[in-house]
């Protein structure tokens, strides 16, 4: 009996399936949207038909079909087995997916729903998450055409305990794309001319599809002329002819060019634009250091800020020219190797200092507005948008310039005479005091060194006497009052006395005359000796001077 009981219990354990396992069953009937399934050992259970359907499909099930189900409970309150087809499919799928994940194999699935951050994918019983960034190599705006479509996926990570699976469709596409790129690139070579379709446009260039592989057409390689934005000459979807400039076999990056299929305008620059020739061009770009002018498509030259204007110094180029403006420029220098042309804007106009020198020779009177006042003089605006300077020393004949410069204000209109024009240094010297003539020159007239003039005593001092001549003041020192030392006394003269003196010096800079009574007496004595005799012959000086005075009478 003990042996029979043991065999009976063993048969029960073998025939009775354990809860939590997958068992085989047979469909007995389908009623009320459910399938009645016999799982053996006289156990039956019910499963909703929807558990037998793939996402987006109708269930294909009929009585007599054998199916695998998951036994959750041997018997419920109604005496039925609690079974699940979905859980059975999930267990089966997890076993299959874990093996595929370990072997890095692709798995087949279908996108069937949208969730936050991505989509849900049915992998034949297991539900996986497909992040939005892993749908395609480029952002997908409409995922409708992909819904319910059987397609391969790559498992990125999975956790059976938590029931998490993350898959990628992008990895499959990138792998296929890499294979396709490698095949296309193998058939390309540098210098080859190919047709492509513009797929995308950015600020720095355009991506061109060469039949499975994209190449970058940089904005600087689109045309020989300056291109501000690729959209000026290209449109998305447009078919273009390009040349393969460079291929990087490691990164599979391809550089393309369009201008390389056209003649290089720099090959004929020196012949078309000889040095010092004048041409009309268009301003294409303005910077702090100058303006770029297009002479012809593909050929640009720089007008440096120093070559823009004769008169406007330290001014931003944007205040002299504007973008797209037509201007006349002169070719100053060409460097074909560096593809540079130096241009001049001011050279197309005459030097205003040369023009002024021709129209306003020295001594010409001019009138202008005081533009600026500095510690060393005035700047006066002149014709030709240039300035002339009146130095402190040229403000007045009397007194110091520092004392009278305060009488002038910006905006005052003044008259002056041109005293010097230096074209090289771009300087024009003016004189306001010259407008009234030179009172010193007028006063001395033909007086020169050695002349005898009559002056009037105006002041007696210990060191000498102050005298005037035609309104010009001079000072005769004590030592010059007489050749006789005893007579060198200032007090022997009186204010108002008129005396004859000899001019010993004429200083135009200090505007003073050097005068001496002593020099006059010595000169008279010398002249008398020459005319009336010599003291060496026995005649006394008194005799000689007496004869000279008698001769004068």
UniProtKB/TrEMBL annotation:
S1 motif domain residues are: 20-86, 104-170, 191-259, 276-346, 363-433, 450-518
Keyword line: Repeat, Ribonucleoprotein, Ribosomal protein, RNA-binding
Q: Which SMART domains match?
A: S1
Family annotation (SUPFAM superfamilies): Nucleic acid-binding proteins
One short Pfam name that applies is: S1
PROSITE patterns the UniProt entry points to: S1 (PS50126)
* Example of a GO cellular component annotation carried by this entry: cytosolic small ribosomal subunit
The Gene Ontology biological process terms listed for this entry are: translation
- InterPro entries in the record, alphabetically? NA-bd_OB-fold, Ribos_protein_bS1-like, Ribosomal_bS1, Ribosomal_protein_S1-like, S1_domain
Q: Name one GO molecular function term.
A: mRNA binding
Tell me the CDD domains matching this sequence.
S1_RPS1_repeat_ec1_hs1, S1_RPS1_repeat_ec2_hs2, S1_RPS1_repeat_ec3
**Keyword Acyltransferase belongs to the record:** no
State the PANTHER family in the record. Answer: 30S RIBOSOMAL PROTEIN S1, SMALL RIBOSOMAL SUBUNIT PROTEIN BS1C
Q: Which family does it belong to?
A: Belongs to the bacterial ribosomal protein bS1 family.
What is the protein's known function?
Answer: Binds mRNA; thus facilitating recognition of the initiation point. It is needed to translate mRNA with a short Shine-Dalgarno (SD) purine-rich sequence.
Q: Which NCBIfam families match?
A: PRK06299.1-2, PRK06299.1-5, rpsA
Q: What is this protein called?
A: 30S ribosomal protein S1
């Amino acid at each position: 009996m003990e042996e029979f009981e043991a065999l009976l219990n063993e048969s029960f354990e073998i025939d009775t399936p354990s809860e939590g396992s997958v068992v085989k069953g047979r469909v007995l009937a389908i009623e009320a949207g459910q399938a009645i399934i016999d799982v053996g050992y006289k156990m039956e259970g019910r499963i909703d038909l929807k558990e037998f359907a793939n996402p987006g499909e109708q269930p294909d099930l009929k009585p007599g079909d054998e199916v695998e189900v998951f036994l959750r409970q041997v018997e419920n309150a109604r005496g039925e087995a609690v079974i699940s087809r979905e859980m059975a499919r999930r267990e089966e799928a997890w076993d299959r997916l874990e093996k595929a994940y370990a072997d890095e194999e692709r798995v087949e699935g279908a996108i069937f729903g949208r969730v936050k951050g991505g989509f849900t994918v049915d992998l034949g019983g297991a539900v996986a998450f497909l992040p939005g960034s892993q749908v395609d190599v480029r952002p997908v705006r409409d995922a409708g055409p992909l819904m319910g479509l059987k397609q391969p996926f790559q498992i990125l990570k999975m956790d059976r305990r938590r029931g998490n699976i993350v898959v990628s469709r992008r990895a499959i596409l990138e792998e296929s794309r890499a294979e396709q790129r490698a095949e296309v690139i193998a058939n390309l070579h540098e210098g080859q001319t190919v047709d492509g379709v513009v797929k995308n446009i950015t600020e720095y260039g355009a991506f061109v599809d060469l039949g499975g592989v994209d190449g970058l057409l940089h904005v600087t390689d689109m045309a020989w002329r300056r291109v501000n934005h690729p959209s000026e000459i290209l449109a998305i979807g447009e078919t273009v002819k390009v040349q393969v400039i460079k291929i990087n076999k490691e990164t599979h990056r391809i550089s393309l060019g369009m201008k390389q299929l056209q003649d290089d305008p720099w090959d004929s620059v020196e012949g078309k634009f000889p040095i010092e020739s004048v041409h009309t061009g268009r301003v294409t770009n303005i910077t702090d250091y100058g303006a770029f002018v297009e002479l012809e498509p593909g050929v640009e030259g720089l007008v440096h800020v120093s070559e823009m204007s004769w008169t406007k110094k330290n001014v931003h180029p944007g205040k002299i020219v504007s973008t797209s403006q037509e201007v006349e420029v002169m070719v100053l220098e060409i460097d074909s190797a560096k593809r540079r042309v130096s241009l001049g804007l001011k050279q197309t106009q005459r030097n205003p200092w040369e023009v002024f020198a021709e129209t306003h020779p020295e001594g010409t009177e001019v009138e202008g507005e005081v533009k600026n006042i500095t510690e060393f003089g005035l700047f006066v605006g002149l014709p030709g948008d240039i300035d002339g300077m009146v130095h402190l020393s040229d403000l007045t004949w009397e007194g110091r310039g520092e004392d009278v410069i305060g009488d002038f204000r910006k905006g005052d209109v003044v008259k002056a005479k041109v005293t010097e024009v230096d074209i090289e240094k771009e300087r024009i010297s003016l004189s306001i005091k010259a407008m009234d003539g030179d009172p010193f020159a007028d006063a001395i007239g033909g007086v020169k060194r050695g002349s005898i003039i009559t002056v009037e005593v105006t002041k007696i001092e210990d060191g000498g006497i102050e005298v005037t001549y035609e309104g010009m003041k001079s000072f005769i020192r004590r030592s010059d009052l007489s050749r006789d030392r005893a007579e060198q006394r200032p007090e022997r003269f009186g204010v108002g006395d008129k005396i004859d003196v000899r001019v010993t010096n004429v200083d135009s800079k200090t505007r003073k005359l050097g005068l001496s009574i002593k020099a006059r007496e010595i000169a008279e004595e010398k002249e008398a000796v020459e005319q009336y005799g010599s003291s060496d012959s026995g005649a006394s000086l008194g005799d000689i001077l007496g004869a000279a005075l008698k001769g004068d009478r």
